[in-house]
Design brief:
Rossmann fold; 52% helix; 310 residues; 6 strands
Length: 310
Amino acid sequence: MENRLAELWSIMRFVNPGLLGTIGRFNERFAGPIERSRDREAQHVLKRLIGPFVMRRTKGQVLQDLPARTELILSVTPEAAEAAHYEALRRQALTDVSALNDNLSGAQAGQARFNILAQLTKLRRAACDPRLTSPEFAIAGAKVQAFAELAAELTANGHKTLVFSQFVDFLQILRAPLDAAGISYQYLDGATPAAERSKRVAAFQAGDGDLFLISLKAGGFGLNLTAADYVVITDPWWNPAAEDQAMGRAHRIGQLRPVTVYRLVSKGSIEERIIDLHHDKRALADSILAEGDASALPSTEDLVALIRGE
């Protein structure tokens, strides 16, 4: 369960059909009250219902000898031109979604939410590098420059690093400073053939490449890359569980060194708000699978507030 309680309903429908009723009844009785209103009574009843079918073991319990993992946020301050470009996009996005406010309920609600998420994705891409949303922007963004400096420093100190992004075209941009600096790396995205994928993983594990650039969908799971002791998350994702899976490519059985994770976050952007949301999403799972308070998922109104910068 990563994002919402409907995922729990799907699992229990397979494990014990009928236990949680229909999806409509489940949403009415549990998902709505818990996610929107933090209803502790509904949370308690749901926990008692599924308790006999849940055995939860965290990585810390199973792998008690695993080296420490340290997570750090590296805040990146954009230059004036880049900041102005982002702000212009944010204002335009706010203007566009404001026209949807009358459609946030009823038959148009789903389409309105989809359009808002599209605007948020555009802002996320702009926070990575302005050229992702405006190809005519001829200047490399501050995050690319910060990444290049970090990559050079880690390589100079003998570290191996995994670099993750959700956006394949951003990974392509990040390759340029590595090529210019002569830093060796492996690369993997969804278009990489399976056989080539295995070769590149084996090559990196054998020491061929100081960095491994990986797209989220291609490398979020199923890879053993313990040759790396550093992980760089270049753009925070909505789902913190996906980030945990990415970190787990290095922080897993076979890793003998402490692992350090850097999140590159553009100051003054939506990325800062996404980091704040991570706590709520992690708490949602903990509230049902372990002791803890339920946390609300972002509503459509909350998503609009992200664009406003609230």
